[in-house]
Write a structure and sequence with these properties.
This protein is of the alpha+beta class and about 575 residues long. The protein is built from 18 helices and 28 strands. The strands form seven sheets. The protein has an eight-stranded mixed β-sheet, covered by helices on one side. Strands 11, 12, 13, 15, 16 and 18 form a six-stranded mixed β-sheet that branches. A hairpin with a 2-residue loop joins strand 15 and strand 16. Helix 6 runs antiparallel to helix 7, helix 9 runs parallel beside helix 10 and helix 13 crosses helix 17. The longest helix has 22 residues. The protein is elongated, with a radius of gyration of 34 Å. Bound molecules: adenosine-5'-diphosphate and magnesium ion. Magnesium ion binds next to helix 2.
Length: about 575
């Protein structure tokens, strides 16, 4: 539609106020105009923090020659006709005020050529007055040059910050739009130096990396609402990146939020993001996040504040919890994928600000429990005192066991479910690896030697692994055809029924395929797999506590050597959301 001046009653409905408070706000308005004009490339230039010069050039639709004067009138816009349109805005601009406001407080020159026009137009204004207007040859698109901003409003000039602060604010505006519009190529030149460039290739990751730097971006993870989240009839789509808890800042300035392509300052929403990190980062620190929300235009009211930096949602609570859940989900998944214990350790769990609940009081064991412990079943021996190893998990309070498969525990961030078999396998593996590295693998002599008969296949596997097994503490002698007697065993299986366990271990090794050069790791993994407590085995409270305490100090406590998940965590947040859903 063409540019027209809005009728009085529409003007009265628009959030009034001054949109151009500082150079960065002029840059913002000009960029929004370029985006609304469908530009695929936008160049921004500034000099002296924008007070000397701001120039925004675009390759968008341009302004028809006949409408150019009108564009500088207050409340003249091509984006809105009637008050009803305010409910359903798809453009960034709608007030028809920016060009007029900027031109009133500067010396502004516009050169524009509408795609349909043979010639371009140049219009020069001074403090809102037209100086001259003439046809010029120009490429399709628009270049707005704003010189000496606030030259005629000394009061506002006085309120400007140091050049470098204004310069940084301009960078903030340009990079924010670049992230929201990865399909548009942005460049920013300040005081003749290129400061920023985005490719316009449409890849959000690319732009976020360009804005925050590669090193920071490496510590960010993708956030995506698992399919569009539903609020009644409405769907919210969310995508973006958020930092792992080891990348934080002392202020919220790196939490960048968009609603329908508009960068917004919405404290409640940035609280929702920060809230997703509860228990993971120190209080007073904030994550890095770039999150883009899209929701139906009638679901958001942008007509709240003159700078359009604030919005009102129709269902604020729902929007916030959607955002928080998506961020939390991304973080939790990152936890479980993360094999690097160092990184986990920084996930707030060595964080002084978190108050760990005291460890559970020693459990008064019952006589009946002991009855379940057949001597043949692997069991978890008490360890004297906690080894001086760094903690990789918080102190967990064992609550109980379910299905004789999982241990339920409570930790600072919520509920933990531990697969007893996978966890014990992991603990044993780590323990033996450490002993083996320190050449102190514990072996025990077998007092009443047992003989074990092997299948020919298993016998062959034993042949291939005999040297490694002897390093691990097995002393095996041939007793007869395929029959062996054990003189000594690694401590972890010393009390087990070898007739079952040893073939199972050889079976594990044969599934591994051909042995790698030294094979110690595989052999230890096999030993751990067969020596670990089984699913279905009832454990005493003390055994569970011992196991959990050991797991708390294992590097990479999340997966067992055979690749099974040892531990899942349900945060308080998730639990609350689950229960509120009803
Ligand atoms: P608004 O963006 O709210 O409509 P502005 O004062 O920013 O108000 O712009 C007035 C009008 O001038 C716009 O509605 C649009 O038609 C036109 N205009 C401004 N900048 C551009 C541009 N870069 N490219 C094409 N048209 C523009
Ligand atoms: Mg505008």
């Amino acid at each position: 539609m063409g540019i027209t001046v809005l009728p009085e009653e529409v003007v009265a409905r628009i959030a009034a106020g001054e949109a151009v408070e500082r150079p960065a706000s002029a840059v913002k308005e000009l960029i929004e105009n370029a985006i609304d004009a469908g530009a695929s490339s936008i160049h921004v230039e500034s000099a002296a923090g924008g007070r000397q010069l701001i120039r925004v050039s675009d390759n968008g639709a341009g302004i028809p020659a006949l409408e150019i004067e009108l564009a500088f009138k207050r409340h003249a816009t091509s984006k809105l006709r009637a008050a009803e349109d305010l409910q359903d805005l798809s453009t960034l601009g709608f007030r028809g005020e920016a060009l007029a406001s900027i031109a009133a407080v500067s010396q502004t020159t516009i050169i524009t050529r509408h795609r349909g026009d043979p010639m371009g137009m140049s219009l020069r204004m001074n403090g809102g007055q037209i100086r001259h207007q003439r046809p010029v040859g120009a490429p399709a698109g628009t270049v707005v040059t704003v010189e000496n901003l606030f030259f005629n409003t000394p009061a506002r000039l006085k309120f400007l910050k140091a050049d470098r602060t204004e310069k940084r604010n301009i960078q903030g505006v340009v990079t924010r739009y670049a992230m929201a519009y990865p399909h548009i190529a942005f460049t920013l030149k300040q005081d003749e130096r290129e400061q920023f460039r985005s490719s316009g290739r449409g890849d959000l990751a690319d732009v976020v990396a360009a804005v925050f730097g590669r090193a920071h971006f490496k510590r960010m993870i993708a956030v995506e609402s698992a399919g569009p989240a539903r609020i009644g009839q409405t769907t919210i789509a969310l995508r973006g990146y958020t930092s792992l808890p080891d990348l934080t800042r002392r202020d919220r300035s790196r939490i960048v939020l968009y609603v329908n392509g508009r960068a917004i300052q919405e404290n409640a929403l940035s609280h929702a993001v920060t809230g997703a990190y509860e228990g993971m980062i120190k209080s007073g620190t904030f994550p890095f996040a770039v999150l883009l929300l899209s929701l139906p235009t009638d679901f958001v009211d942008v007509n709240v504040h003159p700078t359009k930096a604030q919005v009102r949602f129709r269902e604020p609570g729902q929007v916030f919890s959607t955002v928080q859940r998506a961020v939390r989900q991304a973080l939790l998944e990152a936890d479980l994928d993360e094999a690097d214990a160092d990184r986990w350790r920084t996930f707030g769990f060595t964080n002084e600000t978190v108050d760990y609940p005291p460890p559970a009081p020693p459990f008064a064991g019952t006589a009946t429990e002991d009855a379940f412990h057949d001597a043949d079943l692997p069991h978890i021996p008490e360890t004297a005192d906690a080894p001086a190893k760094p903690r990789t998990l918080p102190i967990l309070r064992v609550v109980g066991q379910i299905g004789a498969i999982y241990i339920v525990a409570e930790g600072p961030a919520g509920l933990y479910l531990i697969d007893q078999n996978a966890a014990h396998e992991h603990v044993l593996y780590q323990q033996m690896r450490e002993e083996q590295r320190a050449s102190s693998l514990l072996a025990e002599p077998v007092i009443d030697s047992q003989t074990v008969l092997l299948s020919p296949e298993h016998d062959a596997v034993l042949g291939a692994w005999a040297d490694v097994l002897s390093q691990l503490g097995f002393e095996i002698e041939t007793f007869g055809p395929h029959t062996y007697v054990f003189r000594a065993l690694p401590k972890v299986i010393a009390s087990s029924r070898l007739a079952d366990l040893f073939p199972a271990m050889l079976e594990y090794l044969s599934r591994k395929g051909t042995r790698k050069d030294n094979g110690t790791e595989e052999a230890i993994a096999a030993l751990a797999a067969v020596a670990a407590v089984k699913s279905g085995q009832i454990l005493s409270m003390e055994e569970m506590q011992t196991l959990v305490a050991q797991l708390e100090r294992c590097p990479s406590p999340f997966t067992s050597p055979s690749g099974n998940t040892t531990l899942i965590r349900l945060t308080r947040e998730q639990l609350a959301l689950e229960f509120r859903r009803a």
